[in-house]
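Case study.
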Amino acid sequence: MPVLVGVVGSGNLEVMLEPHGGSTCTIDITTSARGFGPIWEAVVHDFQARHRLAGIAVSINDMGATPAVVSLRLDQAAAALPLGSKSISGAPT
Amino acid sequence: MSQANGRWNQQAQGRAQRLGRAAAVLGARLHGKRVLAEDATKLLEAVLEPGDRVCLEGNNQKQADFLARALTQLNPAQVHDLHMVQSVLALPEHLDVFESGIASKLDFSFSGPQSARLAKLVSGGQIQIGAIHTYLELFSRYFVDLTPRVSLVCAQASDAHGNLFTGPNTEDTPAIVEATAFKSGIVIAQVNELVDTVARVDIPGDWVDFVILAPKPNVIEPLFTRDPAQISEIQVLMAMMAIKGIYAEYGVQRLNHGIGFDTAAIELLLPTYAESLGLKGKICSHWALNPHPALIPAIEAGWVESVHSFGSELGMENYIRARPDVFFTGADGSLRSNRALCQAAGHYACDMFIGSTLQIDLNGHSSTATLGRIAGFGGAPNMGADARGRRHATPAWLKAGAQARQGRTGVSAMPRGQKLVVQIVETFREHMQPAFVEKLDAWQLAEQAHMDIPPVMIYGDDVTHILTEEGIANLLLCRTDEEREQAIRGVAGYTPVGLARDRHMVENLRDRGIIQRAEDIAIDKRDATRSLLAARNMRDLVRASGGLYDPPKRFRNW
Amino acid sequence: MNRSFAESTARERVTHLLDADTFHEILGPAERVVSPHLALLGVPSAFDDGVVIGSGLLDGQAILVAAQEGEFMGGGVGEVHGAKLVGLFKRALAVQPAAVIVLAESGGVRLHEANAGLIAVSEVMRALLDVRAQGIPVIMLIGGANGCFGGMGLIARCADHVVMSDIGRLAMSGPEVIESSNGVEEFDSRDRALVWRTTGGKHRYLTDDCDVLVEDDVAQFRTTAIGLLGQSLPLSLASMEAEHALLADRLSRYGDCRDALDIWQRAGVAEPLRVADMEAGQMPALKALKPKELA
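After joint prediction, the assembly is written out as follows.
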């Protein structure tokens, strides 16, 4: 079942985690803020280093949240995953 | 009566001449010390001379706005090139006098609302700034080389003798009037009411020359009210780290909070989060602080033994009256504030200052300077600086000093305490502006405005901790410039400064406890929710006060 | 520990309103039924288009529920959002729940979607009335900080019961719209106390547009909703005429009042200025004061 945290409001974002077949973790980001690609990559990289998700699809709708809020929501979402749905292997894609 | 001969009492003679001119021009319209409102400008014309040093109450909160307006109505052909010395440039009138040539030189401390216009007038050559000061620094100079010849102050009430009741917003008045009255200066007060007996004597009538009943009560702004509804989860997280990682760690009993939502969050977490950590009685007992409404829940829960204030805060009057064991109040029951003494208290009698800022560089220098604005300093640098003249010890002061000096040699080997000076800031501000920069805007502003040195709010060697959503950097433990730089980069998050960190060095600093992440002090970020706040909106604050707190209209949303 | 209704997200409100673990979402976020319009405008969508709908149990009884997320596009009703509400009401005709409960927080039509939003609002209204005509009660819970305005305000008053907290607001025109149309002298939208006096839960309660006033507490909304299950009000010509008579009477009694304070005074409230600071529990006593001359 999907995990959903957050709300698409100003300075906020929603993060949905869904199971998907395979051992990779995919991350799909839709954002209203332009030009912050490198920061998103860094945030996502650090997130995956913390949690090492596998078999999970991460989907984000963002309305200008700061990296602090993005990291917080990602951690909140990962914490809400049922135990056993994560894996310690898998590089981010 | 002075015993000095003519060569040595020029100032007293000058004072007598000015008072004589005033008496002559006002005639029967002068009743004792009372001058009618419509004669205000005439009075000023009589007592002022070109080039005089004039202090006008532009305080942080209260404004002698009637006298400020009367000053703008002078004829610059008669009264010109005044040297204004005042704490705050708040009203348009404060700068109008420079545009018309009534005044030409300025020494001040803070100009928040007028900072952009001030910058324009400076670059246009209409204002010559002597210097920008901190509040305590400016008051100090009133007794050395910036003594006012004439001071224009505001008070709540006056009696026939000129005794003034300044009430909750006493603020800068005592320091200003003392310097003026005891150096043959002239003190003119605008008051909101004339009474037979003042509620209490804040300024003795002997020190006051003229009293004017203003047509409207003087302006006062509520600058220290923060709506808890606007506190974010990130600010709650930082507040948790501050309480556990610094307040608890050092045992901070005596402190000052720079105003802001970050510190409001800390105040609102005391009765909840800090309580759950068993910290009541161990931290936050004594405050040099304006009466922040956000402190109400902590006071009600028994955390606070004393609060001394720089000024009052609109809406808090009845709450303060009902809590005289906590606040400094007169026999009349209302607050007695005093900015000069509270600044001294914040400087010498507090073990920690914590506040926010706009920019921090790689040395930890902290600045609120922005291009196109000359905003000044206010009081933060007085609290946010090590008090080198201090000698009495407390555990917090000794611990900070020991951390700073551990392993050092030469002059730094002498055991000393140090004040905790904490900068609390999110790595990105509004519009994704990074708070961490390679070079402060202050450098460019200094060039633009022809300042001798860049306007730095808190110097890096005074900053002991930098706290962001990414963690706490303890600069006391850094021994080289490189360690300091990486410690700062290590909490600068995803800003360009943060992304350029040496990851290996930062990990090493973390191992040594110089950088602490939330998880290193056993804080789970998911616990950082708004439900931890003892009050989540203005209504909650009113309820917490038992209905005693009466927020100004702009804060009421019910 | 009191859980603030206003501070909770739509999902959190539903979770804590219903019996534990009984909520089954329909057209949940994973199905990605999103707005077809927002992407064209470069505006981020929400996976559930800002409204959570589904079924669950309330005190063991089967209900259908919808909760609008006020933080997404101000809770504005767009094409998909509106279709989800319509679909929920149509489902009610099929499954006959003990009530349809709508946690309303909306600025009305989602302007980005223009006519699609307008049409959606009118379809929701019709679908709601169809449900009521079947004797299934429709209950509105209004307690979000964004209030219930515009077309959604009209929809709310078509329901059987309106439950509000005093943080909640219910009106047609929003405060800024009134100010820009009629001037700041007529209505200063920055005077927040005035805005809440005019459209907030307490005023709506005192003037009978709100049936029950509760504290900002999800538990109180839950208890009140349970008490209203099965309490369908007649939807007949007679009830419409009675409603019109009430409105005419209200207009004749208070039509020349300048401010809610005047209305409350005229309605027999002894100290109108103290109403704003009163707790929800103190309000029924005030309402009892009002002269009841109409049958």
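Observations recorded in class. The first helix of chain C runs from residue 10 to 17. Chain C touches chain B at residues 1, 3-4, 7, 145, 166-167, 190-193, 195-196, 200, 276-277 (CB under 8 Å). We will return to this complex in the next lecture.
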